[in-house]
Design goal:
Layout: H1 4-9, H2 13-24, H3 28-59, H4 67-115, H5 118-123, H6 126-168, H7 171-218, H8 220-225, H9 229-282, H10 287-328, E1 350-357, E2 366-373, E3 378-383, H11 389-396, E4 404-409, E5 412-413, H12 419-424, E6 426-429, H13 440-445, H14 453-462, H15 466-471, H16 489-503, E7 507-511, H17 519-533, E8 537-542, E9 553-558, E10 561-566, H18 568-574, H19 577-593
Parallel strand pairs: 3-8, 3-9, 6-7, 7-8
Antiparallel strand pairs: 1-2, 1-4, 4-5, 9-10
């Protein structure tokens, strides 16, 4: 995986906001309305202390009728209600923006992860990525929430209160307010920057522990086979200890931050109240002025406390969003060309022309592979493990691009075709079948999601699994468990065959399709596979030579090269590597049957 996320990571706010703005742009009208509600709410709230001052001053004049205080009291209540009304309206208007933008980003990341090459997914740590996506999506909502609901309102309120204090009194009140806010902000920013590394360490440790837990649970059977439950628990606990230490440091430094913030606010409030009280004693200020200053101070102190917390939350949200957008920065090894065309074919001709490929640039797997599958023909590839057989299927699916040469369908290079249309034309039954943790019906229907129940069941009958499914208590609605572990290897293989049949592709790939079946089941399904392959361009990758005897052409691979080719009979007559493999397998089967 690349390190783009860490490159952002000391990452500036500007970079994260730049990446986030395109997702907010469609909702600019809602954002403007929410901001208007924000301003109106703050103006209404700003009027509350003014009205309170007038009420106090009015009540201090005996000659005044009760009508004036009553009117002021009604205005006071109306101002407080208006502030709450516009605050709630802002939330109602902006709620969709927060939820939709988070959803849009997460969906884009999800699609991008599926668009990444197999190379990325072989290196990924699933648990850590899942946590990064989950936390990043929540962080987007949090960032927008804190920004519009706390940071902007507080800054606006500070500005308005400062202007009012200067206008009504003098620069002394405003200076104390601004100095308090400046010192408070400086303390908050400096300490929070110091704390950020502890937070980063905590979330990195959480991702690592999640990855370790998911990996152990996915490999539950392997853990049981080797009686390594305690070993996995110790490894997981080591990760949790790292999380614990990072969280403790984070909480301790949070206490330091909170203490400093409280002290700064207390000193500022005391200084302002002292100045206001002195004015009342001197007679330059009324009792209502003291109440006004006190009300504004109380009004500012609460959001100032929240502002510190919000800054911390924003920094944490930015860290999580950086990781989320870091996933979007992962490079696509396999991409559609701008001029890529759609593949539409029913009886395609497939050709590997001088193909060279290696998963690592330092080690070549395939050397000058050259063969052709004519329309409707079946070509089988055999060879020992590690000879490069399954790599052919991955290249044909374009999970990777070849290093040299080309793979062509009907004379068109795969790289000139859209990946979606290419893969829609190919159906595969893999050697290692992994199923979704859902029903058997869902897993078969995955081959063509819009298929009817009748079509699903027809595909199951063709794969000789329908009778077995009907013996289950829940039939086709039976759950298969994590990765299909509730089914045997042979049952999973038949589900995979049914899924490929339902897709009804023009090109079929059988990658050790019957490897998990017993001899009797293999013979039954082999006949069915032969019927299915009729009229389709088929590539069969096999270890058992008895399953490919009827292929139109058999390729023998060794160390990434084609060393022999021909029909079954021709290869036996050549008395080469294929004949030796055939004799060895026949001896093995004879020994087993004996």
């Amino acid at each position: 995986m690349n390190t783009s996320s860490s490159a952002r990571g000391d990452g500036t706010v500007a970079l994260v906001l730049r990446d986030l703005l395109p997702f907010l742009a469609p909702y600019w009208r809602r954002i403007l309305v929410a901001l208007a509600c924000l301003v109106l709410a703050k103006l209404a709230l700003l009027g509350v202390p003014m009205l309170l001052k007038r009420i106090v001053d009015a009540l201090g004049v005996p000659a005044t009728a009760l009508a004036l205080p009553a009117g002021l009291l009604l205005a006071y209540g109306g101002a407080r209600l208006a502030s709450t009304l516009f605050t709630e309206l802002r939330q109602i208007v902006f709620a969709r923006v927060m939820a939709r933008s988070a959803r849009t980003v997460q969906l884009k990341v999800f699609r991008h992860l599926h668009a990444l090459s197999l190379r990325f997914h072989l290196d990924r740590k699933t648990g850590g990525i899942a946590r990064d996506v989950e936390r990043g999506g929540s962080a987007i909502s949090d960032l927008l929430d804190w920004t519009l609901y706390t940071i902007l309102p507080t800054l606006l309120e500070v500005l308005l209160v400062t202007v009012l204090l200067v206008w009504l009194y003098d620069w002394g009140f405003a200076a104390i307010t601004l100095i308090t806010i400046a010192v408070y902000s400086l303390w908050t920013f400096r300490v929070t920057e110091w704390r950020t590394r502890f937070y980063r360490a905590a979330i990195d440790a959480e991702s690592a522990s999640s990855t370790r837990a998911v990996d152990a649970l996915l490999n539950y059977e392997t853990v049981k086979y080797f009686n390594n439950e305690e070993h996995e628990a110790r490894r997981y606990d080591a990760s949790l200890r790292t999380v614990e230490d990072a969280q403790v440091k984070s909480l301790k430094t949070l206490g330091v931050l909170n203490l400093g913030q409280a002290a700064i606010v207390a000193i500022g409030v005391t200084a302002l109240m002292w100045r206001a009280a002195a004015g009342v004693v001197e007679g330059s200020l009324s009792l209502g002025d003291l109440v006004l200053v006190n009300a504004y101070l109380l009004q500012l102190s609460a959001p100032l406390n929240y502002l510190g917390m919000m800054y911390r939350e924003v920094k944490q949200a930015l860290t999580n969003i950086e990781k989320l957008f870091g996933l979007l920065d992962e490079h696509l090894d396999v991409q559609d060309r701008p001029d890529a065309t759609v593949l539409a074919t029913r009886r395609p001709r497939v050709r590997f022309r001088g193909v060279r490929f290696g998963y690592d640039a330092r080690r070549t797997i395939l050397h000058d592979i050259d063969f052709e599958i004519a329309p409707g023909e079946t070509v089988a590839v055999v060879g020992h493990s590690g000879s490069g057989k399954s790599t052919l299927a991955r290249l044909l699916y374009r999970f990777y691009d070849v290093d040299a040469g080309a793979i062509e369908i009907d004379g068109r290079d795969l790289r000139s075709l859209t990946q979606a249309s290419l893969r829609a034309a190919i159906g595969i039954v893999p050697q290692d079948t992994v199923l979704f943790n859902d029903s058997i019906r869902y897993n078969i229907r995955y081959g063509r999601p819009d298929a009817s129940d009748a079509e699903v069941e027809a595909a199951a009958r063709a794969a000789h699994i329908d009778a077995f499914i009907r013996t289950l208590p829940d039939g086709y609605d039976s759950e298969v468990g994590e990765r299909g572990l509730k089914l045997s290897g042979g049952e999973k293989q038949r589900v995979a065959i049914a899924r490929a049949l339902l897709k009804d592709p023009a090109i079929l790939i059988f990658d050790e399709a019957t490897s998990a079946l017993d001899s009797r089941s293999e013979r039954a399904i082999q006949a069915e596979l032969a019927r299915i392959a009729e009229g389709r361009t088929t590539l069969v990758i096999a270890h058992r030579l008895s399953t490919v005897m009827d292929a139109d052409q058999i390729l023998v691979m060794e160390a990434g090269r084609i060393v022999e080719r021909g029909t079954h009979q021709a290869l036996l007559a050549a008395n080469g590597r294929y004949a030796a493999m055939w004799a060895l397998q026949q001896q093995g089967e004879a020994a087993l049957s004996g």
